[in-house]
Structure formats: structure tokens, C-alpha cells
Amino acid sequence: MFKLCLVLILLIAIDANPVQSGSLSCSGNISASDVDRVHFALNLEFTEAEFFLKGATGKGLDAFNATLAKGGPPPVGAKKANLDPITKRIIEEFGYQEIGHLRAITDMTGGIPRPLINLTRENFAVFMDRAVGRRSNPRFDPYANSLNYLLASYYIPYVGHTGYVGAIPYLVYFNIKRLVAGLLGVESGQDAVIRTLLYERQNETVEEYGGVTVAELTNEISNLRNELGMCGIKDEGLCVPLWLGAENRTTSNILSADPYSLSYDRTAQEILRIMYGTGDEHRPGGFWPCGANGRIARMFLDEGCYDRDCIVCSDDN
Ligand SMILES: *[C@@H]1O[C@H](CO)[C@@H](O)[C@H](O)[C@H]1NC(C)=O
Ligand SMILES: *[C@@H]1O[C@H](CO)[C@@H](O)[C@H](O)[C@H]1NC(C)=O
Ligand SMILES: *[C@@H]1O[C@H](CO)[C@@H](O)[C@H](O)[C@H]1NC(C)=O
Ligand SMILES: *[C@@H]1O[C@H](CO)[C@@H](O)[C@H](O)[C@H]1NC(C)=O
Ligand SMILES: *[C@@H]1O[C@H](CO)[C@@H](O)[C@H](O)[C@H]1NC(C)=O
Fold first, then answer.
1. What pLDDT does residue 303 have?
2. Which atom of ligand 3 is nearest to the CA of 104?
3. Atom of ligand 1 nearest to the CA of 3
4. Over the stretch 207-217, which tens digit does the pLDDT of each residue have?
5. Which of 61, 116, 207, 270 could form a disulfide with 229 if both were Cys (CB 3.0 to 4.6 A apart)?
6. Domains in the chain and their CATH numbers?
7. Ligand 3 pocket, 106 CB below 6 A?
8. 20 pLDDT exceeds 70?
9. Element (H, E) at 124
10. Which of 97, 112, 47 has the alpha carbon at shortest distance from 75?
11. Residue with the nearest Cα to atom 12 of ligand 5?
12. What's the pLDDT tens digit per position in 230-279?
């Protein structure tokens, strides 16, 4: 463990690039209603629902409740993953939980159309390759086995979780606060389970990236998200240098949290930068190639909507 963590300290020292903290784009104080803020979260809930349901059962959201998508296009590239029985049961439960979340938000606020979601093997491989800094060989496939699926899952619920932590202080109404508190609880539980399952396998190497261990890969994914988010360190892997561990007393980091062991928060802009993979809330791509939906995401898109993106995407949204 000690040796492993030394390597990781070096990686973090090289990769972590906390910039632009305190700039306006790191502030969640944008002009948005409570409903706008939960609608923004729907983008992540749709993404998780599709990835978990399809991965565990082979069926996407439309097979369970098509009205929740509100006419938005089905995702591209999601498929049933080759999961061991326990992982399958866990992911299947997460998938149903996401349907519940979509229903809760839709029943209270009316909901928004599902955005186009890119869950292709290639999209995950592009993100993973960027995190590690080299091309996977064979190509990284999130659907190939339980370990790859969990590594891919490491990318998404955590972002939703930080988004809820970031949104709650700006909420006004009791009913919406109660809703988001409930969403946050389950979302953070999902993240914790995924991290625990990966933690148990921290020393295994990921075949597609040669000798890279699971712990190293989680660090690299977290570093990538920190770089894309552009608001400093808000994301930590499973094994960290002491100064990032709880009370500076441990290098084990099964939960990612700040120096007070409180959850990190992220703004809508940071989440868009990370999920688009462009580091720019105005430039769609990555998981949401035609942009996220709802007033908040569209506000940023409209500000900087490039002709190319608008022509390609406007018909679908
Ligand atoms: C991982 O390897 C380290 C160092 O060899 C060891 O101390 C640790 O117990 C291992 N962890 C697991 C979960 O196997
Ligand atoms: C948010 O911005 C408004 C308008 O600029 C300001 O009045 C308010 O105090 C800010 N709230 C916080 C929590 O920063
Ligand atoms: C789909 O979800 C909506 C919103 O919660 C609900 O009204 C409807 O009954 C659900 N349909 C099915 C088939 O479960
Ligand atoms: C999904 O992502 C992959 C990898 O970037 C890309 O090749 C593909 O065109 C994307 N699909 C859509 C529909 O955007
Ligand atoms: C741990 O170290 C970091 C960085 O040196 C510092 O900011 C933080 O306050 C320390 N935490 C505790 C509990 O001493």
C-alpha cells in the first residue's frame, strides 16, 4: 500500500491542475429557479438510468416507462454488460432506483425531454484513454466484464452526487429541498457502493492499460474530472497522499471528501464541462453530444452555440 501510494502522490503532483478557483464559473449562484436546478439534474439521472438498466437487464428506460423520456431520443451504444451475478443484482437495483428518481422529479416538476446520450463503448474508451494518457489496447470496453463496468460507473453517479451537494444551498422551497435531499442520499450511496467494490480490487491491473492498477486508474479518472471541471480538487481516487486523506491520517480514500470530510460540491457549469468532455459548458460533446436539456444547460449553449453544433443537433432537441 505504501509503495502504491508513493506512485500515486507523484501522479497527483503531476496531473492535478487546480486552476481558476474563485472565478465566476466556479460559483453556483446563477440565475435559476429551484425547478431549473432539478431539471438540470435530470440529465444525469437519465444517463445513469440508461447505463444501469441497459447494463444489467439489456433493456433501456423506454422498456420500463417510456413516458418519462418526454419524447427525447433513446441513448446510443448502451448494451447489456457481461456482469457477475452480484454486480448484476446491484446495478439492476441502481437502475430501478434511477427510474424512481426520474418519476419523483417528473411528478413534482413536469420533467424535461431526455437528451441524446452517448453510451457507446467508444465514448467510454475516449474518456478512459484521456484519463490514462494513452490509447487502450485492446480497446477499453465498459460492457466486457464487471471490473470495466464498475470503472465506467465510477465516472457518473459521483458527478450527480457533487451536483446535488452544490445545488442544495441555492434551493428556496421546502418540497424541492426535501426531494433533492432524498436524491442526494441514494446517489451518494450508489457512489459509495461502486467505490467499495473497486476498492476491494484496487491492486488488480486493468488489461487494456497494461500494468495500470484499479487504484491508479481511479486516480487518473478523478484527475481528468478535476481538469475538465476547472475549479480545483473536488474529486479524489481510491488511494491518495496523506494530505488528502481523512484528518491527514490515512491514504485509504474509499469516499472522496474535503479536508473536513464533507462532500465536494460542483456547479452546473463544472458538470457540463465534465460530461461534455470539452472543459467548456458552451461546447457539447462526450456523453451529451447535442447538449444537455433544461433551461440551465440551454442557457450556456445558446450563449456560445457554434453553428456546426446547432445544425447537427437542433432537430433532435
Ligand atoms: C494492495 O497491495 C498493497 C501493497 O502490496 C497491500 O498492502 C494491500 O493490502 C492490498 N490491498 C488489497 C485490497 O488487496
Ligand atoms: C447571489 O447573487 C445575488 C445577486 O448578485 C446576490 O444578491 C446574493 O447575495 C448571492 N448569493 C450568494 C449565496 O452568494
Ligand atoms: C411512468 O411514470 C409516470 C410518472 O411517475 C407515472 O405517472 C406512470 O404511471 C408510469 N408508468 C408506468 C408504466 O409505470
Ligand atoms: C459517441 O462517441 C464516439 C466517441 O467519441 C463517437 O465516435 C460517436 O460519433 C459518438 N456518437 C454520437 C451519436 O455522438
Ligand atoms: C491536512 O493537510 C492539508 C494540506 O496540508 C490541510 O489543508 C488540512 O487542513 C490538513 N487537515 C487536518 C485535519 O489537519
1. 63
2. 5
3. 4
4. 999 989 999 99
5. 270
6. 2-231+261-316 (1.20.1260.10)
7. yes
8. no
9. helix 121-132
10. 47
11. 247
12. 999 999 999 999 999 999 999 999 999 999 999 999 999 999 999 999 99
